[in-house]
Design brief:
Largest sheet: none
Helix content: 40-55%
Length: about 120
């Protein structure tokens, strides 16, 4: 199949007109020179014995914030999973949600545990 040739010269002529872009005026940057002696004294202050107490305080604060996470109940999974959909009254759904949050389980795991307990009874 032969390639079709396109005449794009008129488009190129239209696009060849470019306007000059005006740039914003250059603003000189402010250069700050730091006194090496001043920097050294600040570094010495930071690493002095007085500030070690402050560092120790922050470390103890970090240690006290760490609390163990509650253990999650392992989901009950045996074999192949099958999806089940049920319609519940809104009030029952809300109670189920609250109860699952109180036991720190997902709603799925909570319902599976209830079904498993009931099946073991019978």
């Amino acid at each position: 199949m032969a390639k079709k040739k396109f005449n794009i010269s008129s488009t190129l002529k239209k696009n060849s007109k470019t306007e000059e872009v005006k740039l914003a005026p250059k603003i000189p940057l402010k250069k700050t020179t730091k006194d090496p002696e001043e920097v050294k004294t600040k570094v010495d202050e930071i690493h002095s014995g007085e500030n070690k107490k402050a560092v120790e305080k922050t470390e103890t604060i970090k240690e006290t914030k760490a609390t163990p996470k509650p253990k999650k109940a392992k989901p009950v999974e045996k074999g192949r999973m099958v999806r089940m959909t049920i319609d519940t009254p809104e009030e029952m759904h809300l109670q189920l949600k609250i109860k699952s949050i109180q036991t720190r389980m997902s709603m799925r795991d909570y319902v599976l545990r209830l079904i498993e307990k009931d099946l073991k009874k019978g």
